[in-house]
UniProtKB/TrEMBL annotation:
It comes from Saccharopolyspora oryzae. Residues 1-22 form the signal peptide. Keywords: Signal. The keyword ATP-binding does not apply. InterPro entries: Quino_amine_DH_bsu (IPR011044), WD40/YVTN_repeat-like_dom_sf (IPR015943). The lineage of its organism: Bacteria, Bacillati, Actinomycetota, Actinomycetes, Pseudonocardiales. This is ABC transporter. The keyword ATP-binding does not apply. Gene3D superfamilies: YVTN repeat-like/Quinoprotein amine dehydrogenase.
Amino acid sequence: MKRISKKTVGIAGLSVVAVVLAGCAGSGPEASEPAEELPHGYVEGAEETAEAQSRLTVTDADSGAVRVLDLITGDVTEVGQAPGVEGAAGDGRFAYLESGGAVRIVDTGSWKVDHGDHVHYYRAAVREVGTIPGSGLVSAHSDPAVVAVSFGNGSASLLDRAKLDEGTIGETGRISDVARGAAVVPHDGHLLVPVEQPGQVGGVQVRDRDGQPAAAIDQPCPNPAGAAATRRGVVFGCADGALLVTSKDGTFSGEKIPYPRPVPEEERAEDFHHRPGSDTLAAKAGESGVWSLDVAHRAWTFAATGPTLAVNAVGAGGPLLAVTPDGALHAFDAETGHETATVPLLRGPVGEGDAPTIEVDTTRAYVNDASAGVVHEIDYNDDLRRARTFDLGGRVAQMVETGR
């Protein structure tokens, strides 16, 4: 792959004509050098590539080591120490690791820029950016201007995305009235903030970049929890289903996607997982199964899996994936809920604190096995075939994929 370089626009047949004015002996100004034009999509210090440069950020629960695994080259980059990581999140480029009452931010050096009709993929050096205070990490959502890092105590830290791209941290504000366990999501130049106030039904507010109220979504969302940003809008989990928030010409609106049947509180969807860019979401349904939400068709599907440790959804036409406590990986039809494949994957039953994560991209899924110190690459389109296994050593306890 070639590194993108600046290119100079040549100007054929350029000539400079000296104009002699009557009564003046001097000539006109000399021609200046033509301005240097940068290629479309140019990012200083980064290499543009033709395909996604997926990377996994993993933490070792034994040593506290943080490593970034390049899934293209297989290379591993050490990125310092973060002992006792309790939570991890990603926003497509940065990994956010909660440890010791703070969130450590790692620039994985892998990301994409989606222009709608085309996508740019980039790779750069891995680096540690710094930390922000906070515990109970819920999620991190971002757009080109701001990152919203949400915490379980009902607060969210707003970070300047441009500064993060440059390798520094700049907090632009903090929101303190988020519904507990819910997440703030940037969308269409604004912030979508799920709130729940005493004596009122929960809902979603539209706020400006500084966190000041701008509008409110008229559809209620009782007990909001969980959020997912999709191409069709932002989905929030509610006690009575899901709320899809969209915007058009600066106007925000909400559409409720109710559950297909009465759902007890312990079986509601509270934490969505999906492949970035897809409109099919997965969420645990308590100890009884897994929910699949097809946002395009506004339809829920229930898969009776029993207890699960991790779930994710591949996307339209692809399977719903789940790991059960016995260490097996299962695939389910996302439209019917019927099981289509199962394979023993993890090294025996999973102990407390060693629950895996399932990360998904357009062709593969990645599952970490903490006790074995490995990450398995799964071809989910080939009966869950194990394509590669990366031996990282230690206890691979947390995992985040970027660059998709």
